[in-house]
Design the sequence.
């Protein structure tokens, strides 16, 4: 009887182990299926963009009497992934680059400082108690904004926290430095801080939703929220123009060549003419919200929830490449010294060149 009992116990344990292995296998299959769906969606988006580009080229040939001309090679340099930063324990929401350093903020509540030569983490800044959504640099000072409703000021030489700004009563979504001030976007307003005293000297009001996007160009601050862009004079903090409607919920902004680029929750990039404030074009191709934009020379880059980065020609507004190496949404892209850096909810940062 004892032998039979031991045999039954062994069989029971084997069944438990088998069920555990099956559960682990099912989990891996689910993860694999999710990855396949991401890759399929990215491939479909790229194929659709390619078909649109070919159609545009055929129309161009027809309209310019170049029917006999064969366009063989556009001679556009293609970016390739050259490395990966790993070390965060959660999605990476923001990045900035300064003086040979890449700086990233994450859902793990930390800010990491990376060496751009070795791709290794030099130090970790701790103190926030919520997601680090945004970063900005001014000289040797770093500013980090968080869902803990604070902005922290860090010394980039000693890595010490110099000050904690507690004026916000909601998540700090966006930061930008200009004209001796720090501008921070949150729910319905933008706060303005003096860079010497860290005192809040102004609150810019007029938005009716989250101010998730801020950018500065030509003496003006551009702020994006739900279906509206406001343009503020950096000299007196007055709103000089409001672009209302046609954009949807704005998550990212960039300015180049008198054009304003707005990345939206509706999967498009809206291109606006800053001379007449009219929409020039809405760029499709992404199949998820466009969370981040960066401009470099005659190209600009867009990162999306669909896990891809698209490379666009600024003159033709045509997508010339789609980068597919991330496995989750792309939250931030920055350009520095000929390299593109992309941060993702897959907890990694990739380097492209």
Sequence:
């Amino acid at each position: 009887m004892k032998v039979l009992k031991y045999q039954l116990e062994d069989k029971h344990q084997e069944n438990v182990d088998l069920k555990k292995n099956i559960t682990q296998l099912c989990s891996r299959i689910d993860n694999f299926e999710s990855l396949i769906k991401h890759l399929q969606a990215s491939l479909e988006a790229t194929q659709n963009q390619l078909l649109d580009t070919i159609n545009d080229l055929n129309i161009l040939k027809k309209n310019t009497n170049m029917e006999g001309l064969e366009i063989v090679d556009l001679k556009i340099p293609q970016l390739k992934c050259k490395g990966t930063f790993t070390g965060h324990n959660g999605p990476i929401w923001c990045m900035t680059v300064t003086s040979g350093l890449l700086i990233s903020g994450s859902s793990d509540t930390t800010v990491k400082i990376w060496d751009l030569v070795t791709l290794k983490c030099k130090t970790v800044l701790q103190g926030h108690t919520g997601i680090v959504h945004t970063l900005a640099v001014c000289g040797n000072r770093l500013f980090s904004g968080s869902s803990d409703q604070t902005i922290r000021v860090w010394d980039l030489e000693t890595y010490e926290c110099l000050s904690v700004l507690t004026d916000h009563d909601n998540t700090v979504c966006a930061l930008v430095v200009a004209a001796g001030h720090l501008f921070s976007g949150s729910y319905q307003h933008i706060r303005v801080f003096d860079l010497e005293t860290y005192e809040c000297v102004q609150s810019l009001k007029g938005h009716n939703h989250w101010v998730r996007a801020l950018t500065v160009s030509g003496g003006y601050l551009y702020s994006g929220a739900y279906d509206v862009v406001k343009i503020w004079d950096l000299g007196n903090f007055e709103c000089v123009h409001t672009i209302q409607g046609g954009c949807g919920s704005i998550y990212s902004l960039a300015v180049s060549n008198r054009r304003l680029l707005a990345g939206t929750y509706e999967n498009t990039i809206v291109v606006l003419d800053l001379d007449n404030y009219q929409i020039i074009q809405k760029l499709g191709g992404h199949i998820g919200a466009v969370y981040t934009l960066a401009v470099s020379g005659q190209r600009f880059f867009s990162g999306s929830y669909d896990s891809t980065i698209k490379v666009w020609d600024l003159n033709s507004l045509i997508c010339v490449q789609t980068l597919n190496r991330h496995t989750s949404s792309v939250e931030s892209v920055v350009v520095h010294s000929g390299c593109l850096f992309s941060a993702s909810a897959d907890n990694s940062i990739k380097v492209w060149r």
Remarks:
- The chain has two domains: 1-72, 74-352.
- Residues 66-74 have pLDDT under 50 and may be disordered.
- Residues 1-72 form one domain.
- DSSP finds one helix and 26 strands in the chain.
